[in-house]
Structures are given as C-alpha cells and as structure tokens.
Amino acid sequence: MMKAGQRVLVRNDWPETRGPCHIRTPHYLRGATGTVLRHLGDFPNPEDLAFGRHAKHLALYHVSFDASSLWGDRKPQAEILVELYESWLEPV
Q1: Cβ neighbours of residue 77 under 8 Å, at least 6 residues apart?
Q2: In the prediction, which pLDDT does 76 show?
Q3: C-beta separation of 22 from 15 below 8 A
Q4: Domain boundaries, the chain
Q5: pTM score, two decimals?
Q6: Out of the domains of life, which is the source (predicted)?
Q7: Is 69 within 8 Å of 80 (Cβ atoms)?
Q8: How high is the pLDDT of residue 78?
Q9: 35 DSSP β-pair partners
Q10: Cα gap 76→40, rounded to integer Å
Q11: Which CATH class is domain 7-18+35-91?
Q12: CB-CB neighbours of 13 under 10 Å
C-alpha cells in the first residue's frame, strides 16, 4: 500500500496497443512522477469490470502532479490531482 507523501511513478505502459481494453489512466501521465496525497479506498478494478470479468479490489489514490513537470510551461505553479489505481503506480 502506498502512503501519503510517497513519490510514485505512473507506469509507462500502453495496453491498448495489445488489443481491446478499458483504461482509466490518462495518456499524459504515463511515465510521470507524482505524490500520493491519500488512499481513497479499495474498489473493483474498472479495467476488468468493463469487460464483465471478475475484478479484484485495488487501492485507489489521489495523486498530485506539478503541471509544469507534465507540460514544461513556466506558468505559476499548478497542481493536477488525479485518481489512479495502484496497478498503475510504482514507488520511486
């Protein structure tokens, strides 16, 4: 389980290139590093539910990203807050 304040890397994976799938992780976050803010609970994996498959419960987190690290602009600091399942996160 990830902890609040922990730095994480969003997996740079592209399952849609391997066949039909349902993905809740935005493309622009793959390969990005963020910070876990909080654990939101454990929920059935929507990537399996979309196809009517048995879905194991996964931890869901609020993860914060610095906007300038995602898009390289020099605008005032902005935070992007995204809900991501643990299966997409790796500890840094």
Answers
A1: 66, 67, 68
A2: 64
A3: no
A4: 7-18+35-91
A5: 0.90
A6: Bacteria
A7: no
A8: 86
A9: 7, 64
A10: 28
A11: mainly beta
A12: 14
